Amino acid sequence: MLALALAFTAAAQQPVNEKVNLSIQNETAVNTEGLEFSPTFYEDGIVFISTNTVGLKKETDKSLSLPATSILRSRRTSEGQLGAPEPFAKELTSVYNEGPVCFDRTAETVYFSTNNATNGKPKLSKDREQKMRIFVANRSGDTWGEPTALPFNNGQFDDMHPAISIDGDKLFFASNRPGGQGGMDLWV
After folding, report:
1. DSSP 67-125
2. pLDDT of 23-50, one tens digit each?
3. Which pLDDT belongs to residue 22?
4. How is residue 34 annotated by DSSP?
5. Is residue 88 within 8 Å of 40, Cβ to Cβ?
6. What is the pTM of this model?
7. Has residue 153 got a pLDDT over 60?
8. Dihedral of CA 109/115/118/123: which sign?
9. Sign of torsion over alpha carbons 26, 32, 38, 39
């Protein structure tokens, strides 16, 4: 899908009467029989969410019958293809679901979703489900600092899929919190 989006952008810039050849390739090093989604550009490649554990210890997501999702990174090879995925940051990894992620414009701050847990143990809501919360972490050199839960999180509903505005003033996210139109709604 990433190759298709780049090719479409290039095609959209061509005059209407000009013939454009598009090439779509499967990024075979990244794609698995499981789930890969929510890619975002990062340095020399992408960060994405996957059920590929790449050696990480993960719980099984019972609703998917797959390993819990992880935040992975794939760097571009010298040929321009995405290389084998690796864990993005062990500091942000748990045995539960993580992701999607977004970065501020400097890529020094990451916002990400993860299942609600305390001291590595699942924290359940009143309806006995483990909800999602949004965390933030700042980069210090080659590592990420301790993730901090955002203050609006509430363990009784899901807050997830963050997207930060370019100016960094607004965080958009999905939530099933009270006051929406029903199901998952977009909040800011």
Report:
1. EPPEEEEEEBPTTSSB---EES-GGG--SS-EEEEEE-TTSSEEEEEEE-EETTEE---
2. 888 999 999 999 999 999 999 999 999 9
3. 87
4. S
5. no
6. 0.85
7. yes
8. positive
9. negative
How distant, in Å, are the alpha carbons of 7, 47, 54, 90, 186 from that of 170? 30, 22, 33, 27, 12
Which of these, 29, 43, 127, lies nearest to 88 by C-alpha position? 43
Q: Whose structure tokens read 């003033």?
A: 169
Evaluate if residue 110 carries a pLDDT over 90: yes
Among the residue ranges 60-64, 102-106, 131-135, the one predicted with the least confidence is: 60-64
How many other C-beta atoms can be found within 10 angstroms of the C-beta atom of residue 117?
Answer: 16
State the residue for tokens 């059920």.
51
Instruction: For residues 71 and 56, give the distance between their C-alpha atoms in angstroms, rounded to a whole number.
Output: 11
Strands 143-144 and 117-118: unpaired
What's the pLDDT at 1? Answer: 40
Residue 108: name the closest of 132, 141, 82, 77 by CA. Answer: 141
Q: Pick from 114, 142, 135, 132: which is nearest to 49 by CA?
A: 114
The single-letter DSSP state of residue 12 is H
| Residue matched to tokens 């790449």 | 54
